[in-house]
Here is the input.
Amino acid sequence: MVQTIYIEPNTGNLGIGTATPLQPLHIQGGCIISGNVGIGTTNPLQPLHVINTILTSNITLGTATLSSPLGAMPMFACRAWVNFDGTSAGTNPFSLPIIAKGNVTSVIRNSTGNYTVNYTTSMPSTSYASIITFDGTTTSAITGQARIDNKTTSNIIFGCFRLGSSAAGGGSTADLAFNSPGVSLAIFM
Here is the structure.
């Protein structure tokens, strides 16, 4: 029969639900705690407050399970992301419909191929990395590139360009601004 509470006389380890506690506190079975629990802190501010590293193979946030990466490489969360259709009709500046997003309140088309993405929660600084991709069309399938015009803690302004012939340049090849049917932006810091 296992005693409910047991103190190992040689080590002083406390066992709850076990007569062979292997650690200073060893609980065998379930546990219900009301109030805040601290690991590495004597003043926990949340129901579970951990100071330092947590080792786990999987962690569930809400209903999503995140798997641990292989190796010792750290993971960094995306601070903001958005996918939108830059071809929607409207007079510039025009608020574009968003297909999917995270930490983005709105997307404004300032002019042809030029967009402002506004963040819901501001970035702590402007030292963030931005990844911009966009879909081509039959006239822009050869090449395309994005250009960042301005980064602030509350938004980013960028343009989408494709290789094409410029009437103003006498038909010479140039990077032309265009409205892409699928624009994606991801912000990392």
